[in-house]
Amino acid sequence: MDGRDQSAPTPSPLLNWTVRASSAVFGLALAISFAPRLALRARPEEMLSALKLAGYSPRGLMLQFILAVLLTAGFAIAGERIARLLREYRWAAISYSAACLMAPVALMSYGNVKHVLLLGAAAAAIVVVRRRDPHFSQGDVVLIPTLLACYMAFLDLDFGHTAVATIIRAAIAVFAIRLIVPVSDAFIAAPLAMAALIGRHTQFAGAVIAVIVIFGTPFLLARMKRPLPRRIVYPIVVFLYPLAAIGLPSPVVADFFEDGHGVPVASEMLRGERPYTDIIPTHGFIDDGALYLVATKVGLGSLPHLLNTRLVVGFLSGIAIYCLVLAVTGTANMALLGSFLMFSLYPGGMIWIRPSAAIFALAATVAATRLRSRRWFIAAGALIVIAYLVSIDFGLYSAIVALFAAFRARALRALAVGVAAAAVPILIIFAAFGFALDFIRVNATEILGSHSVYFVHPLDVPEALRSSALMSNLANGLMPMTWLLALITTCAALARSPLRARRSDAPWLIGVWMVVAAASFIERGNPYYFMVGTPFLFVAIWTLRRRARIVATVLMVVLVLLADPFRHLIAVIPELRHAKQGPLFEPTAATSIHAAQRFVATLKPQDTFVDFSNSALLYALLNRDCPLRQVEVANYQSEEGQAEVIGRIQKNPHVRAALIKFPGSVMNVDGIPPGERAPKVWAFLQKNFTPVFEQDGVVFWKRVR
Question: Is residue 346, in this structure, part of any structural domain at all?
Fold first, then answer.
């Protein structure tokens, strides 16, 4: 024997180096925080220089330089001693290094020496309590939403005054309570404190309740023999997070053109008109009408309430992303981690209603493949129907992937059963309300049949991928690069068995969805494939870790850095928490609405106008009947469509005017004037209507025949 303690763990050279390096980083950050105090004013006797003209003395610069070198070197030397103290306590070494490495971050946004010293005190405390093993595990990903809940509560309590100070205090507080309660399962309920932070009018009281939940529930749950099920709690947390960050009622802004596709449909349905028969939901029955109709029926009929309702329902996309990652990995912890990575990288994708049901359907398809489950294929089939009703294009993307997966898994019958189980009852309900046949006809001939009118330009490589400075544009070009990666890796992975499914194909089905969803980019340049880009990268790296752990770790670190979570914490969340409701419409649209009100007020209550400026939202705002089935000129571009529009106007004596111009909407979609899209309708209007009103750019013509 050589006299060494054989029971002691072997020190990790890399971990020891990390402790020393992080200590040096802390020393440099401390020197930087002290630097403003050493910016000495210039003395009269000093020689003239540009620095003196700026009012500063060279002595200050030299002192700053010397202090930076001395503190960096001094703390690195101290770090060697600390590394020896922590070499038997891996958790402490990692935590100490993380605290020290946070010091430069503390100076990024209104940080100062106090914040750096606070992190130094936390690092020192970790060294002191190094012998207390908190038993950190994968389950501690729950601390991410717990930290976010604590951070938002502290923001509402103004505990820290600045975002940097607040997040540091929240991180230290959560870490401290985790050391006291050394069981990650005890923190599962803590993120649910976000529910108390939703109300904008009760922020202070909600913050107090949230703090009690965050720091009280761990002690209660630590005594429970059976922990709360993570697979139930985590989806709730993913849904609550954007609710808490944005708050309700949320500040909303209406898009006059885009919101003109859904709100008028609901308005006409409230008048007793039937969808597809009398008014067409262009994007999808649920997204373009049914949701707004239900919201109005329950008392949320004002435009701000409708927009808030759509926003909240859109948060289901976050749960869908969670389910998608869960379907691949099978672990709730990884699903939660992937969801919050998406929140940081592309937060808009987590609050968008249109892809929500389609991603649920994709998750069911992925689960069916990984588990070889016909029940999940049945679920996927049913969800495809719902996805189509929410958004036609996204529903089709998921339908194609499900059909591809079911064919390879020899589960086409199960998929068909699921489709029938959802489609048949829905069609029966539609038939009871008198529009089942029109639903089928309009979708097949008018909506899907007219998609060619929306193609914008020839296929072009995204600018971010054509730049010679590709790596410097990596953040902007991440999703196009991800699509290319999905195309190549998915084809390579599925080529092993192109006609027979394998359980390991689950991650690559997400890549298939991305490839298919690029149809939106081909058509209108919309990169809708980005919706599952982050989950694809996450699960691809998660799959890679089994064969190349170091490579996977490096790639994950790069992905996290691209997500820039500090920007999300320091800039995005405070901005959302403190946002106020501004004008509902941008100034041009607001001015146009007032002008239109003046003219429409001259019409009889039962009379209306025909819109030829893509401003259908005006019907709902002014409580006037929409005389056409289409809410956009491009929707009746065909010969049959124009003939129908002319016939409806001729037969409707209540159409007394035509709206020709409306600044604030998108009058010329894709740069094409309505008169060129529907020349026969334009000729009819010119013949039967005459100019009668023009104000602030709003032009109405009055019917003369």
Answer: no
